[in-house]
Every structure is written in C-alpha cells, then in structure tokens.
Amino acid sequence: MQMDYLNYPYQSQRMTAIANQGMVATSQPLASQAGLDLLKKGGNAVDAAIATAATLTVVEPTSNGIGGDAFALVWMKDELHGLNASGPAPASISIDALKHKGYDEMPTHGFMPVTVPGVPAAWKALSDRFGKLPFHELLQPAIHYAEKGYPISPTLGRFWEAAVSTFQKKLTGEEFSHWFETFAPKGRAPQIGETWSSPNHAATLRSLAETNVDSFYQGELAEKMAQFSREYGGFLSLEDLQSYEPEWVTPISVPYRGYDVWEIPPNGQGIVALQALNLLRGYDFHEKEAAETYHLQIEAMKLAFADGHAHLADLAHMKTSVSDLLSEAYAKERRSLIHRTARLPEAGVPTRGGTVYLATADKEGNMVSYIQSNYMGFGSGLVVPGTGIALQNRGHNFSLDKAHPNALQGGKRSYHTIIPGFLTKDGHGVGPFGVMGGFMQPQGHVQVVMNTLDFHLNPQAALDAPRWQWMKDRTVWVEPHFPNSIAQQLMRIGHDVHIQVDGSAFGRGQIIWRDNETGTLYGGTESRTDGSIASY
C-alpha cells in the first residue's frame, strides 16, 4: 500500500503504531503482548494469532470464550486462505421440536440457542496447517492468566458489570448457577483493578494443550458438555461434538478503488459489507464530512442488509448465489433505488453483540485477520460445570419460519455476524482489518475501508473517525463527536438521527497495513475500548 495518508491533514490525535518485525493488534493489552511474545520466540503470524485468541478467552470473557465460534483470513506465502470455524445446530434439533417446547421464536439464553463450539477446532486447524511452534506452547499465556489472574481493565469491567446485572434479573434457572459461580463468585462482577482468575478455565486450556484439542470434541470435556446438555433438556450431544470439523473456504471479494476487499463467504455476513461497497463504488466521494457522503453510505448499507436478512444462511441452503449478489449488474439495479432522501427497505433489526477481533503480522509478510465470539457478550448464560466453558448462543440467529433460507435445522449453520476482513492490491497482501460488534460489523467494515481508500486516513484515524450505525427503518445512531451540522442535514432528508453516548454500540476495530516495498507495518487499535498494539 502506498502510505500517502501519513501526512494527510485530518488525522487522529493517537499515533499509528509503526514497526517492521511483527505486530499484534487487539482490544486487550495482555492479549496483544501474549501474541508478540510468541513472535519473539520464533513463531509466525498464525502462532501469534492462536496465542492471542486463547488469551482473549481469559482476559475478555465478556465477548468471547472457548465455547464460541471463529473465522479467519490468513495471508500466507502470498496467498489468502479462509477458515470457517462456526459450528452447526445440534443434529436432533428442529423447528417442530422447539415449537413443541412452547417457543415461537429462537430464545436468547439457555440450551435452545446453543450450537457446536468451533473455537478450539479453529486453533487446531490453523496450527496444523500454518503454525511453526508446537501447539501446546501457544496456550501457555492463556493458562497463566486463567490460573494466576489479571487485573480488570476499564471497558472490560464496565461490560462485565452490565452483564452480571442483566443476568441476575433474567437467568434464574438452576442451569445458570455455574455461570454465576464462574463470573460472579462474590455475588457481583469483579471491579476495575481487581484481580480475577478462573482455575477451571485454566484446567480446560491445559487439557486442550495436552491433547491437541481432542479432549474438547472426543474426550472428557466433550462428555461433560453432552452430560450438561442432557441434564437440562438441551439438544447438544456427544455425537454432535465428535463429528465437527471446521471448513477451509475460498474467500470472496469485490474491487474497490484499485484494491480488493476480502471477506469469508456465507454463513458469515461479510457479503453484506461487500454488497454495500459494490454499490458505493459507483459514486465519487470528494469529501468525508459531507451529508451526501453519509447519506449514500447509509442507504447502501440498508439495501445490503435487506438482501442479507432475506438471503443469507448456511451456504449449502442459500437459494441465491454469492456471485449473483455481488455482480455488477445487480449492484447497478440496487444502486438505482438510492435517492436523495432516506428510504425504508425491508430488513431485520440490527442488534448488538459481543465479539473479539485481532490482527497479526510477522516479518516474513504473513498476516492473519481473526475473529471469535460467544455472541451477545457472554453467550447463552451457560457454563459447563467444572470447566469454565461458556457456551455460545449463536443459534439465536436462526429463523423459525420453515420457508426462510436461514430456517433452523439440525446440522445447519446459522446466519453469522462475526466477520474478518482483508485488503489486497495487485495480488499483494495489504493487511487485515475488522470491526467487532454484532450487526455493526459490516457497517464498520464499510466505514473503515472508505476512511482508508476514499479519504486516505491512516489506520488509527480510520478507526477513530466518528461512526454511524443504521438500526432499523430510518433510524441511525451517531456518536457524540459526529458533526452536528451533518446530523441536522441528514434529518432534513428523512433520516431519524439519534446521538448514542455508549461508544461500544459502534464496534471495536483493529487494523494492520503492510507497505510491501519496505516491509513496514502500520497499525491502528480501537480507542472505544482497552485497545492495544504490541510490536517490535
């Protein structure tokens, strides 16, 4: 990438990180440092990503865990590889079974939305194919923090307190008691600066390290998950865990301003970001802080989400092809629906979710864009007894409408919110980027890409720039530092603009760009959370 943005007048007050040996960007300083330590031991970007991801399950449990799902884009030896480590619904579950239990829609918590966890399988698959160091070494930092503890950072503490407060009101069944024993052992959330540890989590990580993850899908941990599920009427079985394998997939892309923007194909919602960019590349943007710029971004996003909620599902069950959705002919057709005033496309209601995103790069030019999540913060509210494993609630995204492509079905993967992004130019890797946070994610991807390629902002400025989020109908949330004059102009053309003071509503992102001429790495980290870049 030509680093022409370094002297651009509109830049962030925070400095872009610059290094050339290795870089790790995450939402947690301890996790960033864990990944850097592995790079310094001779590991590559994949080793660093696995170590960082494992550590994040401990130091940011409010957003991810061993019982969640993961996706990765790996740039290795001048080629981009995609990994889909999202787990399917249990084989025995069905719409009729849930309706027989009295459900008219997918519940948020408990065993009904629990799907097979893919995170441990993702770590193993990445290590087996691309790692340099022994797998057991990669989990040692996570084991250390789970066993010895670490002090709670500010954003983490705030999320944790909010989750405990909500769960104390909503999760009253006996099956949820293990969550409270694990994450609120004193009857409350750990406070900022207070040290928290989880011996059970440490023991589980040690088991994964010693068995190369086999205990999670074939052995003792799998049996404990299946037993817990049976005890409380869940559908997750030992057979579901034993049969699970992550899938290597071919990434999808669209061209944008001379670059190629890459995402994981469905069941992930990365195609929503690509569709929006496909619409937006039909316009010339001359000014970032202009009402027309924001209007076109928002309207393109609405149209992309309308398609996403109508068509996206497990790829094997989609009735519309990816190539059709990303074709220029379809983009031209959809672009014609964008007018000078705000419109009401049919779409679902975006909700907020909990996820962690990380980016790594090594001195050899290898880079990883990685994301993992339990969904909606702590996930299902279930912790497998004696393990520290918080189970995800990803099945909440299934539809109970049998005619919908995303209809609940045993062995099927749901529409998935978590998406890693990657940028290339002329066949060369530029770098990983991502913005975590439920349905904010494709919206964050579009804004970060445009900030970089249309408005030439450096990585830190691209992340720090004020964000918007389309919510539903004509409702748009903006941050407090969003330009007031532009917000008023948007309202005059029909947008229902609301200032949202909670910065977490707008996602949390990381970026690493590589200058392929010099090998220099440029990184940005999220100012809306406890973001950190470790580099050397």
From TrEMBL:
**Pfam families recorded:** G_glu_transpept
Q: What SUPFAM superfamilies does its record include?
A: N-terminal nucleophile aminohydrolases (Ntn hydrolases)
Organism domain of life: Bacteria
UniProt feature coiled coil, ranges? none
Which residues belong to the signal peptide in this entry?
none
One annotated GO molecular function is: transferase activity
Which InterPro entries is this protein grouped with? GGT-like_enzyme, GGT_ssub_C, Ntn_hydrolases_N
Kindly state which keywords UniProt assigns to this record, in alphabetical order: Transferase
**Is Transferase there in the keyword field?**
yes
> What protein is this chain from?
Gamma-glutamyltransferase
